[in-house]
Amino acid sequence: MGGVTSSVAAKFAFFPPDPPSYGVVDEEEPPPSGAAPAATVTAVAQSDAAKISSRVAMTGVPWREGVEARRVRTRRGSEIIAMYVRCPKASLTVLYSHGNAADLGKMYELFIEFSARLHVNVMGYDYSGYGRSSGKASEANTFADIEAAYKCLVEVYGTRGEDIVLYGQSVGSGPTIDLAARLHHIRAVVLHSPILSGLRVMYSSVKKTYWFDIYKNIEKIPRVKCPVLVIHGTNDDVVDCSHGKRLWELSQQKYEPLWIEGGDHCNLETFPVYIRHLKKFLSAIEKLPIGKEAPANTEKLPAENETPSDRALSEAPWTTSQRLEPSRKSSRHEQPPGPSTEHVDKHRRSTGVREKSRSSTDRRERSRRRSVDTFERATIDENEQTDKPRKSIDRLGEMIRSMGLCNVDCFKDPPRKTEPSIGQS
Asked: Which parts of this chain are annotated as the region Disordered (predicted)?
């Protein structure tokens, strides 16, 4: 099942630029700034950094002061490229997950301007299979990619989780919301032209979440506990503005959203109100008290498919998404108390037929419990007979190839090198 999901995801969402718009060459780690420490301390620090990442230099882009790049290892075996833009005296760091059909070379100048105008540090990264990152693009890999970039910020650059703002654009809203739902000490989240889920981009009539859908943001956003800013263009013909509005409605801590009149999927940064509103948001969250601080280097990252604890669920407000799809744990209700031992013994003494009947009842009860455990699967099987998207995964993939979720020209399949580009109707 997981393999099919990854296959659908790859056909649906990922169009990495080919060839990549930049290159990388290995680079020596610079010595620590300030006074030279003892040789042993330096060796230990460099050894620890080497376990997490290694320094590289980007080629094909202009050199800029305060910009550096690293090759970062992920828990799924990929080595992704991340770039870090340092802003002097910045108190916040933005971890930026870009959209589709883009890589660090295409985002390079935007990240530098973003950092300078908003007075924040910025880390951008390429997903597995994008740019010079190794591996293959998949939903699961993007979750591991953002996790590795986050750990790099914390362990290499010494950034506290409480000072990190997660920024997700279009497809990047998937890994952004996934990480924010698992790490509750993140300072804030910005969603730029976000998606409710992959399938809902194709079919606006989809009202439930299917097992083969990807980036199920509609299910995860209620678990994000930090302030959420949503930015969306009203003329977006790739991801309808209703996606952003619904995610904003489901957020626990809503910040004033920005619906950019006339904005489409790829040009929101060109509107002056975009930077003004982001500045206002970042200024507001800087002034917010940081609740109980968690040690930045010690918090363990839960797996992306791990369900929240019962305590966390009980503290969260009741949301639409939680009503739509109860967790598996909630479907296993505790059995009602049976008759007392004395009462059972009486029946056993009175007749053996009763015991046989009770044994039969027990078997039926065990069968009922097994059917409850497989309720979701049975529901899916039933839907397979009536729902057109589920009946033809292959046709779904072919239809999805005609659109994308990205920064530039993302709604067209990249032209093949041997054939002229032909727009699809």
From this structure: 295-391
